[in-house]
Every structure is written in C-alpha cells, then in structure tokens.
Input
Amino acid sequence: MKLFELRKELKNLFSQQSKDITDIDFIISEVLGVSRTELALIENIDESQEQEIIKYAKIKLNSDIPIDKLFKKSYFYGLTFYIDENVLSPRQDSEILVQTALKYIHERNYKTCLDMCTGSGCLAIAIKKNADIKMLATDISNKALNIAKKNAKFNKVDIEFLKSDMFQHIDGKFDLIVCNPPYIASDEIEYLDKEVKNYDPLIALDGGDMGLKFYNDIHNELRKHLTDNGMLILEIGYNQKQPVVSLFNDFNFVESVSDLNGLDRVLVFTK
Output
C-alpha cells in the first residue's frame, strides 16, 4: 500500500473524531522503526505494517490513552525514555528547565546537582547527558525510581538514585537543585484532560492546596542543602509565579523563564 494513502485515510478519521492528527505520524514512525523526518522518504509499506499501523490507530481512536503511554516511549531533549502509568509523561515545556540548568552549570562551573521528584528521570538524564556534573536523583516512588534507572542505563549516563520524600533522606549540599514537583491544586485534578488524569499517576500531579505544598517543603529545607553560591531551579504552573516568588522571598529571585507559549514556566533562585 502507498503510505501517503494510508496517512490520508487516517488523518480524515482522526479529524472526524477531533483527535490529534500528529499522533498518526508517531504511530507510523514507531511501527516502521524510522524517525518522523524519514517518513517522507517511504513510499510503500507491506500488508503486515499496514495492519499494525491500523491496529494502533484504532486503539487511539477508541480511547484517551496518550500516544507516548500507548507505546511506552517518550522523546525528551533529543533522548528516548521508557514510560508507563507509574511516571509522568515528559512535557516539552520541561525542556526549558533543562536549558536553563545547563546555562548556569556552564556559566558557574557547577559540580553537583540534585534532581528531586525525578519520575522518569528525564530532567536528571538530559542534564547529565549534556554536562560534566555529579548528579543525584530522588523520588518517593520505588516504581518511578526503577524506571528512571532503566532510562539512565539506556541513555548511558551515570546517576545516583535515592528513594526520598523530598529532602528526608538527603545529606549534604549541592551547587544546583532542580525540581519539577507536583503542582496541580488538589481541587483542580478532576478538571484535567482525561489523557492526564487517567494515565499520569496522581502522586505526580497533586500539589495540595493551591498546588504549593511541595514548594513549601523545598523552601523549608533549602538552606541546609544549597551551597553558598548555589542555585534552585523550579518548574511551575502557568499561574504560580507570584505565589512561589513570594514564598521564596528570603532568597534572591534571579529570573523567570517562559515556555513556548509565553507562560512563566521556570523560576531561578539563589541564596
């Protein structure tokens, strides 16, 4: 079968059901084992490939499962990650945190980094892959840590992993601390898209009252764990800049970095 004909048919089906048509190329590229940029070079597919593509397309059409959870694979900062229902799917917006961290690591010659709430390990692994820095990554979930370890091994980076409820089991100080904590307010969880609330773990979403619980936890212990020249980089929700900056008013607010939609996404603080 001509690939362009199948793509056209599937795009019509997805459009009719208001599904994201970009998922089609994800499906096709995964089934064929090529990158999405290489799809333009493929003219024909065989019957088994056609049936495999249609199988996954039907699953996506008849469910709310996110495309990366369907294939248990996600792409982040040019790297490949295994994911499942035990970890948050990496978001493109979080690449802003990695970019910001790498900028300051290189500017300030940082040597140590702590990534809390590591989940799939995407932040720690992307930073470690692009910087010569000693990395410790922590999470409260054993299942998440097992996935993060698997991703670190796959991406060939040396990271120490530790089970810890925020700073509970963490000793020492770090030049850089990064964190993308759960920051959805508890009373907003039920209004999230089905792809998020039904397939991402609640523990990775629920940030308590106003979504600020974990920022409070970080603030309360930060001075014990940040070197004198150290830096904290946080991911936040679109409307949380002011309350988080106010919470850390006894630290120096360095900058806010916007995401691709122009929304405040990353906050940077020093002692």
Remarks:
- The chain has a mean pLDDT of 96.
- The chain has two domains: 3-63, 80-270.
- The longest strand covers residues 226-235.
- The beta strands are 73-76, 79-82, 112-116, 134-139, 160-163, 174-179, 226-235, 252-258, 264-270.
